[in-house]
Amino acid sequence: MARLINLLFAFSFCIITTATFAQEKYISGHNSWNPDSLGNHRAVVNVQAQGPAAKVVIDWRRRDNPADKAIIVVDAKTNKRVLNVKTENISRENGTVYFEPTSGIGKYYIYYMPYKVKAGSNYPNAIYAKMQNTASSEWLAKTGQARQASVTYLESVNAMNSFYPMEVIANAREVQKITALNQDKPYLVFTEDREHPIKMPHDLPQRWITKGVTGSFTGTALRGENFSYQLGVYASKQDLQNVKLTFYPLSDNKGHAIPPAGVSCLNTDGTKYDGTPLSNTVNISKGDVQALWCLVNVPMQAVAGTYTGIVNVKADNAPPTIIKITIVVKPQMAVKGGVNEPQKQTRLTWLNSTLAQKNDVIAPYTPLTVNGKTISLLGRKVILANSGFPDKIQSFFNQEMTGMSDTAKNILGENIHFHIVSAKTHKDIALKGADEPVFRFDGGGHIIRVDTMKNGFIFQEKTPGTVTWNAISKSKELEMFVSGSIEFDGYMTYTVRLKALEDVDLDDTKFHIPFDKNASKYLMGLGQKGGLRPDTVKWKWDVATKNQDGAWIGEVNAGLQYSLRDEHYVRPLNTNFYLQKPLVLPTSWGNGGKGGMIVTVKGKTMLSETYTGPRSMKKGDVLYYNFTLLVTPFHTLNTDFQWATRFYHKYNNLDTIKATGATVVNIHHATPINPYINYPFIAHDAMKAYITQAHQKGLKVKIYNTVRELSNSAYETFPMRSLGHEIYSAGKGGGYSWLQEHLGDDYIAAWYVPEIKDAAIVNSGMSRWHNYYVEGMNWLVQNVGIDGIYLDDVAFDRITMKRVKRVLTQNGHPGIIDLHSANQYNKSDGFNNSANLYMEHFPYLNRLWFGEYFDYEKNSPDFFLTEVSGIPFGLMGEMLQGGGNPWRGMIFGMTNRMPWSDNADPRPIWKAWDNFGMQGTKMIGYWVDSNPVKTNNPKVLATVYKKQGKAMIAIASWADNDTSIKLTIDWKALGIDRAKATITAPGISNFQPAKRFGVDDEIRVPKGKGWILVVK
Asked: H/E/C letters for each residue in 427-472?
């Protein structure tokens, strides 16, 4: 094998370049100037001779286009700008600058990429200054007398902004020479170590000219280490199509080997976020450079030594290239694969992780059980029809949402079904199921019959976490194949494949979800804000501007969300970025814009009818009418958690936090222990020390960490950029200067923190970054001790959420998750409802925090209930915008965020809760028919928190003016003797004065406010 490797190596690379090239010195300026006025880069120039003008040629080797960009010269001695400046021969390779040495011999600074920041501080756009003539004509006449100056070094404002070495371009002469030396090759392969990520897709770095085309790579790894290296493929003469790598064993001279199974190329193969295999096609345009990251999982049992092998680089339209690989394995053992040193790219393997992928049941959910076609899950039942669609969906949650009822509440008025209307007869085409044999291959390659689909229906899988089934129904013209599944939390997915068995013209394809009228009081979605369902809703697809593909319809204790999709569904961007990557119009449901939906009362049901309009299908044509269902609620309210768990949303001194009465600290990003957005792996030692101290004081700590945008400080930024648009979204570029200077183009600039200059990039949606995210959470739990996370909007789906919940709650960890969302009902977010958008995540949350731009003053109580409170889904929340409305919040058990402002301080209410003893109370909301306390004004609502012998009553007004109300109290239901009862309003700072009321007294309620009363 060694001889074969050497022969292949010799034939493949008979020409090796060994030339060395002069190179400027590059250093870090350690933040010694203000980049937001002078730029991030300068040349430090030494003037050695007196004269009216100095001339310097700067070999800056820039990856940007310097044409017309300003040059600013500063006198180092006086720190004043030199106005007499002239430039010539400015190119990406170098530029000539003349300037007046105002202090004579000495040091001068030449800033060559100055910019100003335009627009808002958190979404800035760096505008690069254009060259302007500030020189006098008298001085310009003297430039012919210029004395030569020299560049001492090139300097970046800090190490983060440095171009050296991987963004220092090779000049045209160097590229021509190295290409000529390898003129028989249509492309060149450069080898690079893991600590110098390839960053430029359109230029060769000067570093490679110095190294030459060696055809070999040598690296050093520890036993058990997640090692990596790079192959940089330069398409020097032609486009390359479908570039692939073939790995051969790495072996030593004693017969030990690292098998190919432990080696992979991150760019071509891997594992998707949902655990399925990934295969990418890598094409390279002529003149471009593609980094191919090679991952080597060195076995823990590997024997120390030198391992040698080959990698075959090949493209469909070019001959292969053999690269010799040598890895020296040291005797030391890597700790956990070396992931504690992510700067060595040891965590790239996380991108292919399947951690926590198995769909095990997560508490408090219970295993699915199947009896006939009835599937039971926590608080709900789904009864299937032979069609595979639900015949009935039932909820057993009580109206209070604090327990279960023995009586089922039907969500559906009749079964879910399709109407496929023939254009020939204008009648439904009847599809019928039949007894169909089910076959599979046995181990010997023979087809055997294993079961029978009775009336076209059969269960495929029955596990505690997932139940799946198939159904087939046919007519002469059409065949409908249904693949359905339900998970333990109530999430159902349907793949519905409609195939034409012969040419057929259709008037329409209609999808009916007939809701029971008693389970369709509220609606959220389809362009409607959450609240009481209108009598009729008419809706059309408009994916370009509307992030809408379904709705939630239901009651507090029974509901159903549905979303319409096809086989091309891709999760869109959200949170300010929807318009840049919107929904894809489903071919089936949208039908070129003909499709839509009508929700209205029809007969005994409240019908949601999705129509698609007329179309023709040729024999063999297939359409996918896929959809998802989410049966609500998910679980009962955990009211005791709400009263006892009090979040403090700020990094602060732990004793100060403890003194407020808070029990959980939410650490936002841009704080000393969590500085970089969605990348909490750099200041982790400080974070761990803080969390350890918090635990000693009885406090829990959660951190800001989500998926939507990612800090440019992530060690893996450029390896992930090499994956095209898999992890980072396509976009128009721009934004803060670092992004423009180091990413170039084709990205979306996101959140920016000016204090620490943390610039984020928008993630593309569903990608392998979610695998990394799950692994990262697992690492933070095990190594830093986090008690949970708070999510600031979410850009991943429920698969990732389940995985995150599993790793956060492993081994008894609390795994607390709260979700904050800004109101998504706006143009930038496609007019979606936050609760509707994120409902698939609700089964795994502990609290909602909705959030910026939610109006707590002008919206109805039904809006509070459906869009803000979380109660119809088994959750409780807190308020943010303007401090919320504490009186209205209390009837949903919500307070405002701590800390916020003096007028939005929840501590007085926390104190009132503690004085009353809220633990163990039974919450009976105003929406409950049997609520024992009501007011005589329908716009003034009351919620009861009942205990043995006493009750707290929260009253809130939506009346147009100040009003007076009387309470109607069912004293028996309340368990209090009316004759002995007292009604008092405890004094609560910034909420209400102390007051006593008689049982028959009128209570004055100011507009938009209310009371907390204690009845004993």
From this structure: CECCCECCCEEEEEECCCCCEEEEEEEECCEEEEEECCCEEEEEEE
